[in-house]
Amino acid sequence: MNYGDLIKQAFWITLHNRFLWFFGFFINGGIGSLNFNPSMGGPGDLDGGPGNAPPAWLSDLTRWITDNLALVIAIIVTVVVLVLVFIIFALISQGALAEGVAALHRGETRRFSSTWRAGVSNFWHVLGQALLFILIGLVLFMGLALLALVLFLPMSVLFGALSTDTGSQLLLSAVLIGLLIVLVLFFIVLFVALVVAFYIVGQLALRELVVGRKRIFESVGAGYGLFRRNLGRSLLIWLIQVAISIGVGIVALIVFLILGLVLIGPAVLLFSADNITASVVVGIVGGLLFLIPYLVIYGAVGTFNHAYWTLAYLRFTAPVEEITPRPDEGV
User: Fold this and answer.
1) What is the pLDDT of residues 155-201, one digit of tens each?
2) What is the rounded distance in angstroms from the CA atom of residue 47 to the CA atom of residue 54?
3) How far, in Å, CA of 99 to CA of 115, rounded?
4) Which among 26, 48, 55, 185 is placed 20 to 30 Å from 169, CA to CA?
5) In this predicted model, what pLDDT tens digit does every residue of 5-22 receive, in sequence order?
6) pLDDT band with cut points at 50, 70 and 90 for residue 58
7) pLDDT digits 0-9 by tens, 127-162
8) Would the pLDDT of 38 be above 50?
9) Helix, strand, coil shares of the chain as percentages rounded to 5?
10) The Cα angle at residue 181 between residues 176 and 186, in degrees rounded to 5
11) Residues with Cβ within 8 Å of residue 191, at least 6 apart in sequence
């Protein structure tokens, strides 16, 4: 497999079919990937007053929620609806991009409307597969937790018995600590391996479902089979994607910092000069202008990642003579 050509094709399909960025935005996480962690004050703010009474901010918050209960319920309902809409669009986008990129790879023409229809037609299948993967993930997690309990419980019992016998306590404690470190490292490696395998199988299974037109359970088995038969290449493709993501993340961070200084910096300066009204206006305008490149970059990155795995899937499943790309692909 020519990995450089794989990256090149995914890039050109992403660049020349910018309507796909809409779907890539929902796949990549979009606004939901932004972290917002407001500070609640220092450690002292969390402590109660005399007699361990609730802190003042908590009492004020409780009083405000009680006085504005209808507003709070409306906000909660709105957030829940927005999350559900976002999930629906993400599921539609999964099928839309997989089918759209595969069609572009075959030399077919795709527009936003046809890509959207493909995503809608695959919605229930993609939802069913997603629920199946959630169930499989829960089973794997419970199995891993049970294995940890089986291995660590005897050690904890032995360590408890050791605490009552000081004869060889130092040597046995060193042995137990060494075994504990080995087990912890083992579970870390095992957990990472499961997560990576789960991710790759999920990527391939989605393409088997949408592009290969397999049933839900059959697509999961077929995705695992592709991963097992192409273990080395699958892992290398994943590692390349991780490296690309790190590089793009660094560049995007620099771009966002520069844009933040240019677009939002003036609002901060106006606020520090006690020009509150102007700072609010400039901050809103700057924030909206900052949001545009954010949406564009996230949509493009999501589209590239999805196209990257779709093209990799097509290489895994195509005969050798069909792997060579067409000169006009994606244009």
Assistant:
1) 766 666 655 555 556 666 676 777 778 888 888 999 999 999 999 99
2) 8
3) 7
4) 185
5) 999 999 999 999 999 999
6) low
7) 999 999 999 999 988 988 888 888 777 776 666 665
8) no
9) 85, 0, 15
10) 125
11) 144
The mean pLDDT value of the chain amounts to 82
Longest dimension (CA), the chain: 79
Local structure of residue 273 (DSSP, 8 states): T
- State phi, psi for 168 to the nearest 5 degrees: -120, 35
Angle formed by the axes of helices 112-121 and 21-28, nearest 10° = 40
| Residue 16 token pair | 């020349």
The tokens of 285 are what? 């305008």
Rounded Cα distance, 293 and 306, in Å? 20
Distance between CA 190 and CA 103 in Å, rounded? 37
- Residue 78 DSSP class: H
> In this structure, which amino acid lies at residue 95?
G
Q: What percent of the chain has pLDDT over 70?
A: 79
What pLDDT does residue 70 have? 79
Write out the two tokens for 44: 């002292």
Residue type, 251: V
Give the helix/strand (H/E) hosting 206: helix 169-210
Cβ atoms of residues 298 and 76 within 8 Å: no
In the chain, the amino acid numbered 149 is L
Task: For tokens 């990155």, name the residue.
Answer: 301
Domain boundaries, the chain: 3-30+55-322
Which residues make Cβ contacts (< 8 Å) with residue 244, sequence separation at least 6?
7
For 48, the 3-state DSSP assignment is: coil
